[in-house]
Automatic annotation (TrEMBL):
Sequence segments annotated as region (Disordered): 130-165
Compositional bias segments (type: Polar residues): 150-159
Coiled-coil stretches: 10-125
Alphabetical UniProt keywords: Coiled coil
Taxonomy of the source species: Eukaryota, Viridiplantae, Chlorophyta, core chlorophytes, Chlorophyceae
Basic and acidic residues bias: start-end ranges: 130-149
Name by which UniProt lists this protein: Uncharacterized protein
Length: 182
């Protein structure tokens, strides 16, 4: 029994050794695979670290740009507010000026109306005056009118009473206005 038991035990030990060797080979193979995967993962991790660093840097730049744009927007908003305030003030001034202009236009219209009324009144008076003064002049004969005009002598306008060399020339007037000018 003992040789057979010994042989069975040796066969079992041999089987266990073979199984252990197979497992060791499988484990070594698996370890190599895992080491290769680990190396690949480390490469990927290094690559991802570079990408992450680049993205962090880009994010920093974008945050700075957003901050700059926010500042610009705030400045622009303040400027817009100033311009709106100035526009409102100008609108108010324009409205006041338009009202003042409207009042002045009404005053001017009233003054123009008064002027036209006064002008018409003066023209009517002038026409009446002309008609009144034309009647006696029309009655004078033309010869007598010439005689009166030619008899006008210049007055002395120099020291010592010497008459001027200027001579009045009789003017024949055909219009009634010229008669008044003489």
């Amino acid at each position: 029994i003992s040789a057979e038991a010994d042989k069975v035990v040796q066969d079992q030990v041999k089987a266990i050794r073979e199984e252990t060797e197979n497992r060791m080979e499988a484990l070594q193979s698996k370890t190599k695979e895992l080491l290769a995967e680990s190396a690949s993962a480390e490469e990927d991790n290094g690559s991802f670290s570079n990408v992450i660093s680049a993205k962090v840097e880009e994010t920093g730049k974008l945050e700075a740009l957003v901050s700059s744009l926010t500042t610009d927007v705030e400045k622009s908003s303040a400027k817009i507010q100033e311009l709106e305030t100035a526009r409102d003030a100008l609108d108010k001034d324009l409205k006041e000026n338009m009202q003042s202009l409207s009042v002045k236009a009404n005053e001017l219209s009233e003054m123009q109306s008064q002027f036209n009324t006064e002008k018409k009144r003066l023209e009517d008076e002038l026409c009446a005056f002309r008609k009144k003064n034309e009647m006696p002049n029309e009655k004078l004969p033309k010869e007598e009118e010439e005689k009166v005009r030619s008899s006008v002598q210049p007055r002395s306008n120099t020291p010592g009473g010497v008459a001027s060399s200027a001579v009045f020339t009789p003017i024949t007037c055909t219009e009634s206005i010229c008669k008044y000018a003489v």
